[in-house]
Amino acid sequence: MYVGPEKFRKLENIDFDALELLTFLESKKERLDVYHRHVAVVSCHVNEKNHFPFYLNFAIVPSGEKIIGFSISQPMSCTPAIYKLNDISKKEEFIKLFSTFVHLSNEQVNCQCGIMKLPLKTRFIAVAGNEEFLKKEMFSEKVFGTESFSFAKRVDDRVLEFLEKYKDGQYKICRTIINDEGINFFVVDKKIPDEFRPLYSEVISLLRKKYDLPPAKYYPISERIVGSFTLDFETIFSSAPFERVDRLLEEYENIKRDVSKYF
User: Fold this and answer.
1) Which residue from 43, 122, 125, 255 has the least number of CB within 10 angstroms?
2) Residue 118 above 60 pLDDT?
3) Can you tell me the distance from the alpha carbon of 200 to that of 4, in angstroms, rounded to the nearest whole number?
4) How far, in Å, CA of 57 to CA of 109, rounded?
5) Predicted confidence band at 157 (pLDDT cuts at 50, 70, 90)?
């Protein structure tokens, strides 16, 4: 079974050797509460920024069903793994499968392995695996009001294009980062002198409150930021997702223009 945009449909034809993962999972059986609700996951991503924005995950459940899919965040960054497997003997095979979607060298790919409890706390933009298992999980997510595997149902070509563009991208004077918490905007205004940076940081803070936008949580970016704010994740489905951002940035530029008259 495959759920997601056409671009990643070949996920349904990919198989992987899960013996090492299943053995790792079984070795912790006595220590895991509700054992059947746990999965062993290998999550791979590209080290270089702006090369490929998503995380490819290979997972297996105790009953042997395999799942493979692309997620917005690294699952283990959303919820720490209960147990980690630091030395993955099949790592090169997982990287080779990842390379069917993007051409990379082994040095460019980072893989992490751990045992986690379902549902995984990240949204999947595309997922493939055992039909009975996935349907059951998606129904469970619907009942409990969560989105993990089931989010892939909502990802069409337009949504995928949006995610690819702004997952780690740029919008006007803002650096954009999309994670499972929302669309984060970091204002990087290189035109303002350093001595005025605190003043304009306060301006962004006031405008953020005016437009009812929460601040973005810390994210390690190299640029010096003036301020930050976050749009709700559901905004990606809006016909005009950045309407409030446009108004905020327009007002910011007007204030900056007025202030500059006095200096």
Assistant:
1) 255
2) yes
3) 42
4) 13
5) very high
The domain boundary, picked from 155, 190, 220, lies at: 155
Q: Taking the CB of residue 51, how many other CB atoms lie within 10 A of it?
A: 13
Q: Is the pLDDT of residue 103 over 90?
A: no
pTM value is 0.90
Number of domains in the chain: 2
pLDDT given at position 231: 97
Q: How far apart are CA 76 and CA 74, in angstroms?
A: 6
Please check whether residue 162 lies inside any domain of the structure.
Answer: no
Q: Answer yes or no: do 252 and 212 share one domain.
A: yes
32 and 120 assigned to the same domain: yes
Distance CA 35, CA 73 (A): 24
d(CA 39, CA 59): 6
Q: Which two tokens stand for residue 215?
A: 């601040």
Strands (E), the chain: 2-3, 38-46, 55-60, 66-71, 83-84, 109-117, 124-129, 168-171, 174-179, 182-187, 227-231
**Domain range for 191:** 167-260
- Quote the pLDDT of residue 107: 65
Task: Supply 251's token pair.
Answer: 């007002």
Q: Which of 133, 155, 177 is the last residue of a domain?
A: 155
CB 258 within 8 A of CB 212: no
Residue type, 189: D
DSSP state of 216: P
Rg (CA), the chain: 21
Mean pLDDT over all residues of the chain? 93
Residues 118 and 6 in one domain: yes
In whole angstroms, give the CA distance from residue 263 to residue 251: 19
Question: What pLDDT was estimated at residue 8?
Answer: 96
